[in-house]
Amino acid sequence: MEEISFKIIVADSSHKAYATQITEEMESSAKARGTGIAKRSPAYIETKMEEGKAVIALTTDGRWAGFCYIEAWGHGKYVANSGLIVSPEFRKYGLARKIKQEIFKLSRKKYPESKIFGLTTGAAVMKINSELGYIPVGYSDLTDDESFWKGCQSCVNYEILMSKNRQNCICTAMLYDPQAKKNHTEELALRVDFKKDLKLFDRWVRLKKYVMLKLTKSKDSVKSIFL
């Protein structure tokens, strides 16, 4: 594999030219995975850049390689690191982990008292979140800001979310709480074997999709998968 150097920096107005490419790749990647995302327009991404609430990865010769941005909800009580995307040609360089680390640092700097959460269908992202100190939580532990949930309307799984009264969906919810005691967080964190083996994260994602998409809505049917 060719060695390529990347720089991951806080995005600003000078990076607005990449906005369309970023949003197109977000949509195309979601379609390839067969999952949904809350769609974002190039204008929205440009605003995040102007506000200094995004990080962008570029090659030394100026090619766009990856991106992620910050959204604040509930008057800043909650923060989400959203829209993580890596250009297909650079997906074998561990870039997603580095971008997540940088957007996490930026979130902590801008919102030191806020809880940071994420919704994801990706096993790799779940593993990275776990390494940063996130723990799996129920949807009731997330923000109740209507603006956040409204953003899910463009997701292909929105009907599932609403049928579950916004308490569950295909995505797994994960949360970092800066106020939680370190030892308490470690007790709640994913098992050590999950942290070491990405396949176990993948099994969890596939099991959840199976339960949410294939089984009937009866409680007995749902229980049977775990018995």
Automatic annotation (TrEMBL):
Top-rank taxon, per record: Bacteria
Domain N-acetyltransferase, residue spans: 47-110
Residues passing through the membrane, by range: none
InterPro entries: Acyl_CoA_acyltransferase, GNAT_dom
UniProt-listed SUPFAM superfamilies: Acyl-CoA N-acyltransferases (Nat)
Annotated CDD domains: NAT_SF
Name the record gives this protein: GNAT family N-acetyltransferase
Organism: Algoriphagus jejuensis
Top-level taxonomy: Bacteria, Pseudomonadati, Bacteroidota, Cytophagia, Cytophagales
